[in-house]
Specification:
Helix content is 31%, strand content 41%. The relative contact order is 0.28. The chain has a single domain, classed as 2-Layer Sandwich (Cell Cycle, Chain A). The longest helix is centred in the middle third of the chain and has 15 residues. By secondary structure, it is of the alpha+beta class. The protein contains two helices and three strands.
Length: 74
């Protein structure tokens, strides 16, 4: 017989915060935001934490922060 704690442990995956970066000096802002939006749409609103952007010396960066499970490859 299995204990309730063991069942709960196997059924509840651990969440962790992750990010994916989209960047490029030779890519337009439109392309960077489109790539980030497509990725965030695949994840779904329940997993996306935020989307941020920055620029330095014409190097654009868009970061998508999201929740994932330890075993996810997203």
């Amino acid at each position: 017989m299995t204990s309730d704690a063991a069942i709960q442990e196997t059924e509840t995956p651990k969440w962790r915060l992750a990010y994916r970066v989209f960047r490029g000096m030779w890519v337009t802002w439109e392309d960077l935001f489109r790539q980030a939006a497509e990725f965030a749409s695949e994840l779904g609103p329940e997993r996306v934490v935020s989307i941020s952007h920055s620029e330095d010396a014409n190097d654009g960066v868009v970061a998508v922060w999201f929740w994932t499970h330890d075993d996810d490859t997203a």
